[in-house]
Each structure stands twice: as structure tokens, then as C-alpha cells.
Design brief:
By secondary structure, this protein is mostly beta strands. The strands form six sheets. Strands 14, 15, 16, 19, 21, 22 and 24 form a seven-stranded antiparallel sheet that branches. The longest helix has 16 residues. The protein folds into two domains: 142 residues, Jelly Rolls; 171 residues, Jelly Rolls (Sandwich), CATH 2.60.120. The chain has four helices and 25 strands.
Length: 349
């Protein structure tokens, strides 16, 4: 049995021990929020954040109207999109319709929501009218869902832009996009938890509130400078809640720097599964930046980004795989249980 298989076995075993916690996810499909932008994958599916998204015909995502079926970025009459959850038991499932239009009637379009319970059993089909944030779980008596299908009907065109849900973390790729407007809170967050990541901010004086999703910007630290940037001397820390992750990639959208200081000049420090520092790295590149590569592919339990003197950084998004090789599977079980206890307290704002 190879190391990865042992780790996955430990993860599954720990789930039965500590009732693996359900993390809250938002999966965005429109171009302003989907990262990387511009998914066009006909006739394949899209697999992110523990959800496999498929369509009744060629599927595409990343347009300003969200999910598309066929040749556009909308769900037209008779077309459908399905979301299948890795855990087989997702809760608090909601989807957002930017619009639901039919000829002569704005946002009064009609569509069907089809729910499947644990084991794939059909729960029923519920006819709906209108747009906004639709509570799919509530339509089926808050039963756990293994799959959800949204099907347009009666000359209706749907713009489905995001999906919200709770489920146990999967071993597949997870994406967290900090431009999502849903994240924005006027006074910021002391601690922000989403998609199995805990985000905190600080500067030389100590902890600072963080802000997200302002004006399409990334994660930022409230205080001096722009709230959607990590400014000089400010630090944002990302903790993976008692797990070590692999294939960790960030996306830096830019920033600024005074004369002689590179734009987005920053110091990155990463920590291994035991919480020991893997060292620091100096970076100033914008675009995709593989944190895992910077530290030799070692599993990472947390990392921090600090803007260097005279610089500011826009950190837009990150992506990672939950499953990573760790030295001792038994330690993995214990720490995942600890992460589950911590996560059960939810977000503190």
C-alpha cells in the first residue's frame, strides 16, 4: 500500500471516528468569480470542490451568466445542469440564479429542481419560478442530497452563477476565490472560514481584521492602504484546519511597489504537518504561483503571505488538493479530529 493510499485510508477511518465535519463551500461559475476563468469543457464535466458538474449537452462555465449548455453561457428551455456531491450527502444546498427570463416576463421564468437523496434515490421534482438564491435543500424537506438537477422549462433562459453547500471535504481539487462578492462584510472578519480554509490577518501591531470581495479585489487586511490588498508589513495566514495539502497554487493579481521595489514583492512562509516552518521564499511574480513548488512539494498545513517594505499584494485565489503525503497516518487521524472540533464552532466575524 503506497503512502497516498495509507493517508486516504486514514482520512476515511478518521471520518468514522470523529464524524468528519461538513465544510461550507461556494462554487462560482461566472467569469468574475470562477478561477481559473473561462472553463469550456464540452462534452466533459467540471470537477471542483467535491462537486461534479455536468449538463444535458456540451457544458461550459466561466461566462458572465455562469453555467452554459451548448453554445452559450445560459441554460435554455429543455436544457439541464446537474451537481453530484462527492460525499453523497450534502446539506444546506443552494444555487443562485442571476436571472430567470422568458419572453415578456423578466425574472419570472419557470424551471424544475430535481433532488436525489442518499444512495441516489429520487426525492422528487419541484417546479419553481423566479431568480435569486434558491434554497434547494428546503425544497426537499432539508434531506441530505447526493445530486441536484436544475432544468429550464416553458421558454425560460436561466443564468446560474454559483452553488452553495455543506459536505465533508473531498480529496479532489478545492478552489477558493476571494473576489466573490458574497464574502464581503463591511467591517471585515476577525476570522474567515470557507472551503476548509481558515484565513486571518495581522500587521506589526498584532491581529487585524481581513476583508474580501471588495470591488472585485482579493483578500486584504483592514488598516492602512486599500482593504482589498495586503499592504506593506501586513500578513495574511491560511490554515488548512488540521490537514496537510498538496498542489497548492495561488493567483496574485498584481499590487504596487515604490521606486526600486518590485510590484507584489512578498515573503511567503510555509509550515509542515507538525507546524514546523519549511522556510521562507521571496517572490514578486504575478499570476499563478505554486507554493508547493517553492517548498519542494512538501505537504503544507498552513502558509502566510507578507508584503515587503514599499509593496502591496493582491492575492485573488488559491487552489489545493486535500490529500497529501504525511509521515504518520496515525497522527493524521488525531489532527483531523482536532480540525473537526475546531471547525464545528463555525465562522467568527
Amino acid at each position: 500500500m503506497n503512502t497516498i493510499t495509507k493517508v486516504l485510508s486514514a482520512v476515511l477511518f478518521s471520518a468514522s471516528i470523529c464524524n468528519a465535519y461538513a465544510a461550507t463551500y461556494i462554487l462560482p461559475y461566472d467569469s468574475n468569480r470562477t478561477w481559473p476563468a473561462g472553463y469550456i469543457t464540452p462534452p466533459d464535466d467540471l470537477y471542483l470542490n467535491g462537486v461534479r458538474t455536468t449538463a444535458s449537452a456540451a457544458f461550459r462555465s466561466g461566462g458572465s451568466n455562469g453555467i452554459g449548455v451548448g453554445n452559450n453561457y445560459q441554460i435554455d428551455t429543455g436544457e439541464s445542469v446537474s451537481f453530484e456531491f462527492d460525499s453523497g450527502s450534502a446539506s444546506s444546498v443552494k444555487f443562485r440564479l442571476k436571472s430567470a427570463n422568458k419572453p415578456g416576463s423578466s425574472n419570472q421564468g419557470e424551471y424544475d429542481v430535481i433532488g436525489y437523496g442518499v444512495g441516489g434515490n429520487l426525492l422528487g421534482t419541484v417546479a419553481q419560478v423566479g431568480s435569486g438564491l434558491i434554497d434547494a435543500s428546503n425544497l426537499f424537506g432539508n434531506a441530505l442530497l447526493s445530486k441536484l438537477t436544475v432544468r429550464s422549462s416553458f421558454d425560460t433562459t436561466l443564468s446560474l452563477v454559483d452553488l452553495h453547500y455543506n459536505q465533508t471535504p473531498s480529496s479532489g481539487p478545492t478552489v477558493l476565490d476571494f473576489r466573490v462578492n458574497d464574502f464581503y462584510m463591511q467591517n471585515g472578519y476577525d476570522i474567515f472560514e470557507m472551503n476548509t480554509v481558515t484565513v486571518t490577518g495581522s500587521d506589526e501591531s498584532g491581529p487585524r481584521r481581513i476583508a474580501l470581495g471588495i470591488s472585485g479585489g482579493g483578500v486584504g487586511v483592514r488598516g492602512s492602504g486599500s482593504d482589498y490588498l495586503i499592504n506593506e508589513g501586513q500578513t495574511v495566514t491560511f490554515d488548512f484546519q488540521g490537514r496537510a495539502v498538496s498542489d497548492l497554487v495561488t493567483y496574485f493579481g498584481g499590487g504596487s511597489g515604490i521606486s526600486g521595489v518590485p510590484v507584489a514583492s512578498r515573503t511567503i512562509e510555509a509550515f509542515n504537518y507538525q507546524g514546523q516552518s519549511l522556510g521562507t521564499a521571496q517572490e514578486s511574480l504575478t499570476g499563478f504561483d505554486s507554493i508547493s513548488d517553492l517548498f519542494g512539494g512538501a505537504p503544507i498545513s498552513s502558509f502566510s503571505v507578507t508584503s515587503n517594505p514599499g509593496a502591496s499584494v493582491s492575492l485573488v485565489a488559491l487552489s489545493f488538493n486535500n490529500a497529501a503525503a504525511v509521515p504518520e497516518p496515525s497522527s493524521l487521524v488525531a489532527l483531523i479530529c482536532l480540525g473537526a472540533i475546531t471547525a464545528s464552532f463555525g465562522s467568527r466575524r
